[in-house]
Amino acid sequence: xxxxxxxxxxxxxxxxxxxxxxxxxxxxxxxxxxxxxxxxxxxxxxxxxxxxxxxxxxxxxxxxxxxxxxxxxxxxxxxxxxxxxxxxxxxxxxxxxxxxxxxxxxxxxxxxxxxxxxxxxxxxxxxxxxxxxxxxxxxxxxxxxxxxxxxxxxxxxxxxxxxxxxxxxxxxxxxxxxxxxxxxxxxxxxxxxxxxxxxxxxxxxxxxxxxxxxxxxxxxxxxxxxxxxxxxxxxxxxxxxxxxxxxxxxxxxxxxxxxxxxxxxxxxxxxxxxxxxxxxxxxxxxxxxxxxxxxxxxxxxxxxxxxxxxxxxxxxxxxxxxxxxxxxxxxxxxxx
Length: 336
What we know:
- The chain has 336 residues and is mainly beta.
- It contains two helices and 26 strands.
């Protein structure tokens, strides 16, 4: 079991390294609007949070999950005020610790949360307020994971529905991936109907709209964005000028995506991996996949998460500003 876990962690490390229908066209088109003056830093200087941390928004809270934590794993902030609310979850191998933290899902109404722990092949359950403020409260194992095929980059919609990338290890140090619907409570996996435009070996980012009705696959190894409906059917392919049906592992086209109630946002890089991995432009489309604008935030983008409550886009970066906020309301004129 220990050797198997080491193998799975090696595959997950590779996954993190690789990422971290109608027709349309992507690529930076038209003019680029500088929005760097609107970028606001999120103050996390008092915390030791790793560069590979992921960000999530549920309800009125921002959650940061440090996937390589040496201190706490989970950090929670209020999206309205920016106030730090607390941190919790210790890294480690015991049943009350998390060995290899993955995606987080939170029921905003109840505060009940689920998190993947790939190191112990399980999903853990806890209540956010209890884990933050009750010193004797602990996590519990909800169920074990089938590590022959498991979701990565999971987006929680409700207690029975979420979407993400299905990772299937090939027995070595590589893997295949596809977009899937996944029930964290039962483990039920339903693969999406793959777009014919997506090449074998493609690597992608996935984002889900606030209402759970639109899923976006933004490809890293192809100049391609695919829109799916909630049933897993591709409804639009947005092919860029450099689109090739063969996935190119040496390229980094898109490094992240988010969906608001009005727009699809994707972080565009368009460079060889050895020249740059993370996007430094935000391409904006309407919910039908029509191009709207290209934004220059003045930073590189690892991950993005949208807050419907504040209409803010939260961004994690590999830059000196580790986490920042782009208030979309301040640039609304650019997005019409």
